[in-house]
UniProtKB/TrEMBL annotation:
Pfam families: Glycos_transf_2
Organism: Haloarcula pellucida
SUPFAM superfamilies: Nucleotide-diphospho-sugar transferases
Name listed for the protein in its UniProt record: Glycosyltransferase 2-like domain-containing protein
Taxonomy, superkingdom: Archaea
Domain Glycosyltransferase 2-like residue range list: 7-150
Classification of source organism: Archaea, Methanobacteriati, Methanobacteriota, Stenosarchaea group, Halobacteria
Amino acid sequence: MSGPLVSVVTPSYEQAEFLEDNLRSVMEQTGPSVEHVVVDGGSTDGSVALLESYEDRYDLRWVSEPDDGQSDALNKGIEMATGRWLCWVNSDDYLLPGALDTFAEARRDNPDSDVIYGDFVFVDADGEEIGRKYNTRPSRFVHKHYYQFTGNHSTFFRRGVIEGVGGIDEDLQYTMDTELFWRLLEADLEMTHVPGFLGARRLHEAAKTTGEPPEARLAEIRALKSGYDHTVPERALPDKLLTVAAFALQGTYHTLDGRPEAIRHMLA
């Protein structure tokens, strides 16, 4: 089959400070063929000049024009993409070296998978590691009451999966990833977790999910939680107890998967 195996889709706006790390992280991947689709919202901070300087160095396609926010940009990028698999990596985040090789190996070992995902690290504005997120097998309970089961910067979706569950919700500007992952959990999909680190999520002052959350973000979180289906025991038990139970379940999964380092990280 012609065309790239993977399309990395990157929404971007006024992120020139971090965008080059993102571009290089895709350009320097080895293994399967990859294209990079960057959808810029009309930045005026030097992002366009940076994109122009990279467009002849690897398979990079980009547009820079006003849009209706990150979710709109993502759907636009997914429509532009030609790869058989998709990966969504925001412009201030990046792929880790070897991520595509790890994905390709997991794909060969799990040919029926619709979603393949790994773990990710948290980095600061300078790209220094400041934390780790060890993911586990998919779990609605853990997703609802503790932490979403994966992160977009370490997840690969078979072509058509995102469109098949309805695309990115353009009414959401903060919780679109968590809401998408919930719909994936609700769908009849084959998902494979790779016990390795594939992406980096950058925490910095300008990130919209860093610091004290604005009311718009809190409202999205409340709406998201109210939309989850809950069993009778879940409706009866207090939230704090459910969080403890979800934390324990994730720890159990790490134990079953033979990952003592993940247990130590959870308890640190």
